[in-house]
Amino acid sequence: MRLCPIQIILCFSVATCGVSHAQMPLGTKLGENWSGVQNSNPNYAKVGEYGQIEWLGSTAKLIARGSRPLDMAAQTLSSCLGISVSSEDPHYAWLGDLVDITAPQWAAQHPDLHAYAAKPGQLELSFEVQQDGQPRNTIKLLEEAVVQINQQQPWHYRLQHDVRQGHSFFTFVPTATHSQSGELEAVNPWLDDRITIPLTTEPIMAIADILSQKLAAKTGVRFSCCQSDVTGHFWGSQTIPYEASDQTGRLILEDLMIAAGGATSFVERCEPMGKRYCHIDVVPTVERIPVTAPKSGVCSALGYPATR
């Protein structure tokens, strides 16, 4: 099943993608005001994003749901446990893997502009914790998350673990997706492409832009990187000498996060189908374990509500 005449827009963040954000930039006429319009499309509520860890004594429970449950799991673990867990989007190629979340009011006036999100999933895992509230076995927790989501969503992932300059990075990496005809096929993750950057001395943000341009040239997908503000500070403003020879885009990004200082992870989110665009955000990695843990306590993904 393919959709040709309708322009497809994928919400980068369902938490902020109603009428006034993802759907406004394309085709919006001057004078149109969609701020404050409530999206009554039932699919919109189904794809709401949420992530939480609850401590229950010797165990804790991780819950993550939305169109990108592994993405939300990564953000929850990074912003609650201080573990650098990143996520990369699958290659959206088949409309059958998406749901239309267009607000009815918008669709009525803009029949050729629809907003789509990936079909939602939910991750729920219990894991053993230490006295400080941290997982007893982080790798086991992350691998079990991959297995659970691979069983319910139409894409497949693997867990990537890199140790770079003494820093540990975990990433949920897509490995298979549906083709335009709906057949499951192996894919090369965008950030697996190998990049060479000749020696240059630039601000880290400028080197990230070089990485984006080279990824675009390799993949045919437009990239941008990275979020310019992390916990109130401009990310990547330091000037450094840097070069990379035949390194994956992921390893280069990890190098830049290390050079920028502070604990960070990244989120890569992409639009689907023909109009391909990916944006990479660098996000803070912080430990916010409740003082009552491991006996009790709850921590939600940074920037998301405590209950839903």
Describe the structure.
The chain has 308 residues and is an alpha+beta fold. It has one domain. Helix content is 21%, strand content 35%. It is built from six helices and 18 strands. The protein has helices at 42-46, 69-80, 104-109, 138-152, 204-219, 249-260, and strands at 7-10, 50-55, 59-66, 85-88, 98-100, 113-118, 121-128, 156-164, 167-178, 184-186, 194-203, 222-225, 229-230, 233-234, 239-248, 264-270, 277-284, 298-300.
What is the total tally of β strands?
Answer: 18
Gross morphology is globular
Distance between the termini: 34 Å
Order of helices and strands: EHEEHEEHEEHEEEEHEEEEHEEE
Number of helices: 6
- Provide the β-strand percentage band: 35-45%
* Amount of helix: 10-25%
Oligomer: single chain
Q: How would a crystallographer describe the biggest sheet?
A: 7 strands, mixed
Computed structural class: alpha+beta
Low-pLDDT runs of 5+ residues are 1-34
Radius of gyration: 20 Å
Kindly state the mean pLDDT as a whole number?
Answer: 85
Overall structural domain count: 1
